[in-house]
Design brief:
The structure is a single chain. The protein has about 500 residues and is an all-alpha fold. The protein has one domain. The chain has 20 helices and no strands. The radius of gyration is 22 Å and the shape is globular. The N and C termini lie far apart (about 55 Å).
């Protein structure tokens, strides 16, 4: 894999966000020079770290998933496939950079939450729903029926869970589908498709089904915390979030302070995958020495990249985003008018940029264009995704200022998404729910979430500080299915014209 290509993909994702922050930080929302320099250094480290990490994924982690999927497929054992899928899904999710960052942010807000337990809960949800998604594919159940049942269960759990944790739960669904998890999900899905010898078009939807799992798991976790009296009060959580910005002296103070903890965290994330590979190599894979060396090099790259990524994120990238959100949010809340307009427009711009530049989105849109034979243009798909993400972040910032409950957006939003399944073609329904998963990548889980958390803690009175990742994951469900309905209408008109032309 060309490292320069990976660097370009990552830089395109991060640099526009850095430019917006630097511009605002030097003009209308001035940031401390130390914080601004930390942000720039953190952004550069994020680009380098994610580049090296993605290279490691391509060299080691993704081939490991593909080999496992292929060998498990040859065994023709559904129980073995599902059990191993759970184990792989669990371990890969635990190592996901987005999840590690998200766990830190939840811990900063809810001090009663144990980060390790929280990450394991999310990983367990992913593992279970990967199993469900694969069973759906093997047994040839309709993707719409599975999604409908899953979301009914989800909303029943949401109704029973504490209000302050609903945003966290729905955010976890979007945070799971990052650069580590998606390759594995796709690899396992390809393995199952080869068993069925099904059409490639039937392969869409596994990512969307999988992303429901962590939401349900976190909702159950929150109910347990509430029943045992271990859940922070809303006031305490808000106070903790407001104090989460670091003000240590020196540009490199945070980077050096986090160095050893990050190395430990990175090691604990990747070691289970290394152990799993060793077990699979001995019992199942039997790869050549050259293949083993290549995968081991990939693991080394992944370790180095993940460590640099987390250092950059924790050392300055997220802090600047949160500080900028606080400044703009406070001015918008106190002065309204142009400041509210500026805050919302900043969110709309960030939303469009984040989705259009997200590497996973590019992969998905290219795959859709290829499988559809060019009938579904990637530019049109990107446009609908960009509009959806822009509206999502705009709504999140409006909510941060207005302070209304997240349910007022999520419930009607998902109701519309589920209703659209009746009219949208199956292909577009699968694409839509997959898009919801991949739209929220590393930038959403780091900068965008920190930015909205800052706005929510600006004095606007929105104590339920999470929910932006959930909204970014939800809007493509609506926008892409609307595209599917439009596509279906145009296809019918074209078919009718062709039929009339043939008769004449």
């Amino acid at each position: 894999m060309n490292i320069l290509l990976k660097f370009k993909e990552t830089a395109i994702s991060v640099v526009p966000i850095m430019a917006i922050v630097v511009l605002l930080g030097l003009t209308v929302a001035p940031l401390e020079s130390v914080m601004l320099w930390r942000f720039i250094i953190g952004g550069v480290m994020l680009i380098l770290g994610l580049t090296i990490f993605l290279l490691g994924v391509d060299l080691g982690i993704q081939p490991m998933g593909e080999h496992c999927g292929a060998e498990l497929t040859k065994k023709r054992s559904l129980p073995l496939l599902t059990i191993v899928a759970f184990i792989i899904g669990f371990l890969v999710t635990a190592a996901e950079p987005d999840i590690q960052v998200f766990g830190d942010q939840v811990k900063n807000v809810f001090s009663s939450v144990n980060k390790t337990a929280f990450v394991f809960v999310i990983a367990g949800g992913v593992g279970i729903f990967i199993m469900i998604g694969l069973l759906r594919s093997v047994l040839n159940f309709s993707i719409k029926i599975v999604l409908l049942i899953a979301y009914v269960l989800l909303f029943v759990l949401a109704f029973c869970s504490p209000t302050e944790f609903i945003g966290v739960a729905f955010d976890s669904g979007g945070a799971t589908t990052g650069p580590m998890t998606v390759p594995f999900i796709l690899a396992l899905g390809l393995g199952v498709s080869s068993v069925r010898a099904a059409s490639d078009k039937e392969g869409f939807g596994l990512t969307g089904v999988t992303s429901i799992g962590p939401i349900c798991a976190v909702l159950v976790y929150s109910i347990i915390l509430q029943k045992t009296g271990r859940l922070d009060s809303l006031a305490n959580a808000t106070e903790a979030a407001a104090e989460s910005i670091h003000h240590a002296d020196g540009i490199f103070a945070l980077f050096t302070a986090d160095f050893l903890p990050v190395l430990k965290e990175t090691s604990l994330s990747l070691l289970p995958l290394v152990g799993l590979f060793i077990v699979f190599q001995v019992t199942l894979l039997k790869l050549t020495a050259r293949q083993v060396i290549r995968i081991c090099i990939g693991f080394v790259y992944s370790f180095i990249g993940l460590a640099i990524f987390l250092l950059g994120v924790n050392g300055g990238f997220m802090q600047a985003g949160e500080a900028l959100g606080q400044i703009l949010g406070q001015k918008a809340f106190e002065l309204g008018g142009k400041w509210l307009f500026l805050l919302i427009c900043t969110g709309l711009l960030i939303g469009a940029i984040v989705v259009c530049a997200e590497p996973a989105v590019w992969v998905l849109t290219e795959q859709v264009e290829f499988i559809s034979g060019g009938s579904i243009k990637r530019k049109i798909l990107l446009s609908f995704l960009a509009v959806g993400a822009a509206i999502a972040i705009g709504l999140a910032l409006w909510r941060a200022i207005a302070g209304f409950n997240l349910k007022y957006i999520l419930v009607p939003g998902y109701a519309i998404a589920l209703l659209l399944m009746i009219f949208s073609p199956n292909l577009f329904t699968g694409i839509a729910f997959d898009s919801g998963g991949v739209a929220s990548g590393p930038i959403t889980s780091t900068f965008v979430l920190s930015f909205t958390l800052g706005a929510a803690n600006s004095g606007a009175g929105c104590s339920d500080v999470f929910g932006v990742i959930a909204l970014v994951a939800m809007m493509p469900l609506i926008s892409i299915q609307l595209l599917g309905i439009i596509y279906n209408i145009k296809s019918r008109k074209s078919a009718k014209k062709a039929e009339q032309g043939g008769e004449s």
